[in-house]
Write the structure tokens for this entry.
Amino acid sequence: MFSTKYYNRYLDDHFDRQYYSGRLKLKKFDTDEFQSMINANQPNLLPMAPEPGPPCIETRNLSFHYKASNPVLKNITINVPQGRIYALLGSSGCGKTTLLRMILGMLKPKTGTIRVFGMQPGTAEVKIPGPGVGYMPQDLALFRLFNIEETFEYYGRLYGIPIETIKERIKYYIEFLNLPVKTRLITQLSGGQQRRVSLAVTLMHQPPLLILDEPTVGVDSVLRLKIWNYLEELCTKLGTTVIITTHYTEEARNSYRVGFVDSGIILAEDNPQRLLFKYNCRSLEDVFLELCLERARQPEISNENKPQISQHCSIPEVTVQIIVEESNDNHHESSENSSDGSIEQIEMSQIPRDMNNNNNNSQTSQEFKATDDTLISPILPTPPIHPNAPQANMDGATNTKLPWLDYSRLHALLAKNYLLYRRNPVSIILMNIIPLVQVTLFCVTFARNPENIPVAVVNHENRTQSLSNLFIDQLDQQSLSLHYFDNLDDAIKSVHDLQTRNVITFPSNFSRFFRKRFLKPEQITDEIIEQSRISLYPDTTHAVFYLYTYQKVLEGFEKFLTTVGKSMGFNPNFFGSPVVLTETMYGQNSLQYLEFVTPGMIIAVVHGLSMLIGSFTIIRERFDGHLERGFVAGIRTTEILLSHIIFYLVPLFTQVVLVLFLTFYIFDSQSLGSLWEVFLMTFVMASQGLIFGITMSITCQSQVASLLMVFIMEMPMIFTSGVLWPLESVPPLVKTLAMFNPLTLPIRSLHYIMLRGWTLMRPDVAVGLISAVSYLFVSLISGFVWFELFK
């Protein structure tokens, strides 16, 4: 049975209550009949609701799909009156959020039209997205490392609210929504408290349109009623239009109009009390069930033949709380009229519904009764909402702006990036600690000359004063660790057991036959040649050990010849190599492989880490919902990109300085060119890596995909850039393709600066800087276009 205070009064004065009570139970209630009775018998008791003004939101035959085979919305047609609360009811996944996103201008309909305040959303005139709307998403989308005050200040700056007004509203909403102290971090709040903070930042700039997606989930019933009262005051005093989705079906009875959504179709749209009367139901949940059953019986139903909306709803707009109790002796009169032995006791709690009658609202909204019979104190007075009160700037955050950039919003985004960076130790480690660790490990471990290579020696000459011992003395004892064996088998076995890496053997008559070989060349025989040889048994499975051991044996043999020739009275240079190294034109005679690799290492480290950091910027905010909420607040893609680029240039500057300081001053690497030009080239490459990462963050759909893309791109770029091995060793086609590698020309230019001392005035060096800047801008423009098209 459904009843209201007005209806009870109406029956008490003019009709027999028992007759109409029985009639309501026996047949479906005829709303039109009830309307005509009221008009004929008591026209002044229940005044007609005023004619609603032009609709705030109007959609016609709206359809949308991600895949053509699976439509999300099907010919949606709704009308949201201005200055009213409109509730959308439906199960999860029925299309409510998609509909809201199209109203916000975040999605474009496939067919149909949307008009908000008579204009298409997304245009500059309607300011939606922008300060013309307040949007509370279902997923909250709050920065968890912010505290409550910082959250208010961030969104307040986006909306252009003066800081003094922001402070006032922080104090008001903390008290109104029963929030903790303003210094409490969002991550330290409960789920319900986080939802209240999200609601508060949505309401703070008092826009003409509020779109709230599940605002009261996790909120206790007392506070829920306070929120509804506050929303009604906004509608009354400011003419604010509110669209709200909720899972609490009975909560929607407080709205002016309710729309039931199921599988992308509007089943019905009307005043909730009218729907309750029409379907003879006690709750909107029962109405929803009736609508679903009706649709099941008529599968061809569509939005064209859904129940029509009555623009002149005369049903008294009240909130009804129905409490069903078991019959007892104190209610014997009602028990006699009830066939099942139970009664229906009606507890009424009127909430202001006449949005155009301020007097009635002020009287009836002072107090109301909760389901637990606890009296709720009147809600706090709303923030100042008179004409002179500071409101959000509907033209943007500030008046000092460009067509594509607003300085106040840019300042808010930069402050946001700073707070997140400061409170996220992972970012600090990635930007500063890891580059230092990588450079340190590289300089300590990579491309240095190996030492203590184990070599087995078998010397069959037992004499101490032998040429074989003289040869052994000429070997570099620091690089080669000699292990002596009595026979060749034991020496070879040591190689098999990985105790040694190579074997050197000397014949038993090495000294005698070696002298004959040089003193009497005309008497040389095959036996003399064989007995004067030094045999090296290599283990080529370790190429570095083998090549380095062979090099040291040759160097030792040259020293050995010089010493033997000098002892025989020959000119020591007679036995030297005829190839002589003269004064070097570039570099140093003592150049090591480490110095050749260092330029490429510097660029590879800063470029790779910058790309990694950039790859998490946009996609992290998109994943947490911050990006969509920011777009609804009016942030432009250019402002987001510029805020990330400008902010991260400072950590990149620090990163490059630390890497170069460690390389040149701690590990004493040499640079014949200007360190300023080295810094410029390195900083440009770090910036290029950041832009590459941000572009990947825009294009990828998940953080894992973005991370994989970084590794997929970075490793081939390093391998084909000439960092580890010269490109002259690869086939001509591969070499040509490698020249288009973003790292190749900059690394070559840095190599020229550090090892040849050239400057950027030389074309061979300048081309590397030009290439780096060109790739930077190409990536930036590509990312901006993609971001603008698929945001």
